[in-house]
Fold this protein.
Amino acid sequence: MRLSWKREEVILACDLVASNDWRALPETAPEAQALSALLRDTNQFYPRELRQPNYRSADAVSRKTWDIVTAHPSYAGRRTRGGKLDRVVLQDFLEAPEHMRATAHAIRHVLETGERIPELSPADADFEPEAREGTILLALHSSRERHATLRRRKIEATSAAGSPLACEVCGFSFEEYYGARGTGYIEVHHTVPLHVTGSRTTRLEDLALLCANCHRMIHRGHWITPQELRQVVRVQHSAARAEAGA
């Protein structure tokens, strides 16, 4: 049974190629052997009972780096039979190299430390940019945003400062709209992605209070900050007012 490469695995392989000046790595390369050992050692992707003896061998890693190299726009030779995911990940590296190198670093950290990956809920899968980075980062990010203690501390600190529990983008207040049922409720969002922060302890200043709609819009398509989404809302409202007055 052929086990297809997961996005996280392809990101790690592409990171090797990028670090090697966009050249493939032979199976004898220490980097290829180290990645092989890392992927064979982890249980994050496939259970061991499904694996063939050559699962993610150094030769398999080398061949994957060739798939990535031959998909590069500058490659003029014969292309290998790499899949669509190889081309997608490669394009991500070409468009946002620092972002993708940081993503690879975060994935590698999770695999090397054996950090437990929480289960995903169906709603988590709608967080498109994190899903593009892979289920590992999506699960960890979603777990952080659901952390009850962090959420409570952020809400308490906001209330203690005399600030309203309202969305930092659109100003929506659950209490004002829903009355007692909405008292004390607001969603909490990590303003800096996991691939940037790594595994550091979350600080309250890393958190933003958002309504459910704005929270989803921040995650949709590509990651933007609450400040950037606020500007989107302002522009949209200005356009709507101008059209209504025309």
The mean pLDDT is 84. The first helix runs from residue 7 to 19.
